[in-house]
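Researcher: I'm preparing a figure for a lab meeting and need a structural model of a single chain. I don't have an experimental structure, so a prediction will have to do for now. The sequence is pasted below. Please return the structure as tokens so I can convert it later.
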Amino acid sequence: MAEDEDYSKHPFAADAINRLAGVLAQRGQVETAVKYWHQVAVEFRTKSPEEARDAIWKVVEYNTKTRPDEDALRALYEEVRTFESRPQRIEGEVADSYDYWREVARAVDRFGQFDEDQKPQREAYYRYWAGRLDGRFPDDDWYQLQLAGYQREYERSFEAWAARLDEQFDRNMKPGDWNRVIVWANQAYYYIGMCHFAQGKWSKAIESLNLSARSSTPPAPASNISRRGGGSISRSRTPTSPCWAGSVAGRRCRSPAAWATR
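Model: Understood. Here is the structure written out token by token.
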């Protein structure tokens, strides 16, 4: 069916091929499954966009986590014309595209969850992706904070991570740019709240999250946290998950992230 030249291109075939790939993956035939998901992603990008989108993210997961391969991820991005719900026009070289590298970082976050006994795999994962993302877009705060978070995952050094944040803040800070200060402070309050949440300090978590207003990466509302630890906020790693609470408190630091802990 999936190999039939005519049937494999029929709109009704997309769902069937995706299901076939899912069964193969469950049986351990992951590479064959990825072959079929890739087939759906490309062949049905416009004919069956929902099925194609599901298939695209299966291939993205494979090239991001199962077998990290940025070259293959980039090739897929070009082939299906971005990872958006609908194909988009790509301007210039993908290797130089901020939109592409932003999608890479989002994929790294999306698939960067590991069990407690998978520390070597976790460190190898973030080391690989930090290496691929490094050296790009030095003036973009969001991108550099993502990168610093990945580096911290395998370096395990708070001081190195804090130094990178200080350097990034100083590099682009201009006198009177209070909008940028507010964004950094809001992010600080958000992550302080998340750290309190992970420690079971519900009141402090809600207090900190309520202090976090709008920012470039909108934080989850405090109302999502229940006092029993439920709600929609996960205890797992959040993008660039710094824990400013406690560690930075009392430490003189140039970035607003530290000011927020005073």
